[in-house]
Specification:
By secondary structure, the protein is α+β, with helices and mostly antiparallel strands. The chain contains five helices and eight strands, in the order αβββββααααβββ. The protein is 15% helix and 29% strand. It binds a DNA duplex (13 and 13 nucleotides) through residues 51, 53, 60-62, 65, 68-70, 84-90, 92, 94, 107, 109, 138-141, 182-186, 205.
Length: 205
DNA sequence: GGAGCGATGTCCT
DNA sequence: GGACATCGCTCCG
């Protein structure tokens, strides 16, 4: 089994960790089937697009207003999942970074699906032969494809194998990294904090 | 393949 | 009450 990224990996500023996270595998353990025929499978995708959010200094970040009930996870230690509900129907997944007390985070925006594509399609409400691009290209899509919800995943430790959600380094070597402005925000929209694998088809639009 | 737009719940002011 | 780190559909080229 490839090594799970440790807490130290996430200890650094978000613009640093974002680039290092590209090319790693996001892995979700998932139970499929029913009754006695249930079995555990892996839903996995390679991280191809990440946005960096700073804490109190970043007007676009959820943490800009200070610590609240919703964003409390981000003020905790690095390597924990922050899952929030947006636009009345979607979830987005972040991972906390920086030392406890500093609220940097990484927004996972797109994966290249690697394991469990049929189950991902099912979870997305698509036919099993759906185009892979439709599965995990976009922050809301990847949460739906991996069945990541606030109730089940907000606040879990992604550095522990027992969480059922973690990030692995399988030795993949990233090519060129592209850095562009972040997507879908109105404040600090010009800052180049969106990191993606150059030329990868699974990067969101 | 791109612009426009509606759906929809939660959070914070 | 308004804004929102989105998505999928329609309509148009």
């Amino acid at each position: 089994m490839p090594p799970i990224l440790s807490r130290d990996f996430y200890l650094h500023p978000p613009d640093v960790v974002a680039g290092q996270l590209l090319g790693k595998l996001l892995v979700r353990r998932y139970k499929t089937g029913q009754g006695s025929s249930t079995k555990a499978i892996r839903l996995a995708g390679r991280i191809v697009e990440v946005e960096a959010y700073f804490g109190l200094d970043d007007p676009a970040a959820h943490t800009f207003v200070g610590k609240t009930a919703r964003n409390a996870v981000l003020f905790g230690p690095p390597g924990f999942a922050y899952v929030y509900f947006i636009y009345g129907m979607h979830f987005c997944l972040n991972i906390s970074c920086e030392p406890e007390g500093q609220a940097g985070s990484l927004l996972l925006r797109a994966l290249e699906p690697v394991e469990g594509l049929e189950t991902m399609a099912q979870l997305r409400g698509l036919p099993s032969d759906a185009a892979p691009r439709l599965l995990t290209s976009g922050p809301g899509r990847l949460c739906q494809a991996l069945d990541i919800r606030r109730e089940t995943h907000n606040g879990i430790d992604v550095t522990s194998a027992r969480s059922g959600l973690h990030v692995e380094d399988d030795g993949f070597v990233s090519g060129q990294i592209e850095v562009t402005p972040r997507v879908g925000i109105s404040k600090a929209a010009e800052r180049p904090l969106r990191f993606s694998l150059a030329g990868n088809r699974f990067v969101s639009r």
